[in-house]
Amino acid sequence: METPAQPPLPDKPVRTMDINKIMDAIPHRFPFLLIDRVDVYEESKVAVGRKCVTMNDQFFQGHFPGHPIMPGVLIVEALAQTACALMFSKPEMKSKLAFFMSVEDVKFRRPVVPGDVLELHVEMLRMGSRAGKARGVGKVNGETTTEATFSFAIADR
Length: 157
Hints:
By secondary structure, the protein is an alpha+beta fold. It has one domain (15-156): Thiol Ester Dehydrase, Chain A (Roll), CATH 3.10.129. It contains 2 helices and 7 strands; from the N terminus they run E-H-E-E-H-E-E-E-E. A 7-stranded antiparallel beta sheet has the order 1-2-3-5-6-7-4. The longest helix is centred in the middle third of the chain and has 17 residues, at 72-88. It is globular and about 45 Å long.
């Protein structure tokens, strides 16, 4: 089954979140903060996160020695963190957290290895005051690595 076509992104994001803005928006910290930058293309709807994958990432110590591959569950987590940064960077959402409710239709199509720049394309499918749903696609050099649809509950911090 082929990956559904995504509409092209505009030439420029409407805003960019550096690591400090990301850490203002979400509570994740080393070693579990898995995104380095987020470009917002459509407020509350579309963003692209970036993770510069290096051999210094802690998870490569055991996954796998001599053949380092970024764990797929961490790619899905990075997609979710991108969605959270998009949503929780709004002032009215500052006191909120998100918790996974479900992860569906996950597909791993290509390994992510040290030296890759992982692009985390996220589109919010539904967002309410208590829950949301998003679709994410991980890419390296334009090639799809990972796909997932995930739902999350929203709670007070």
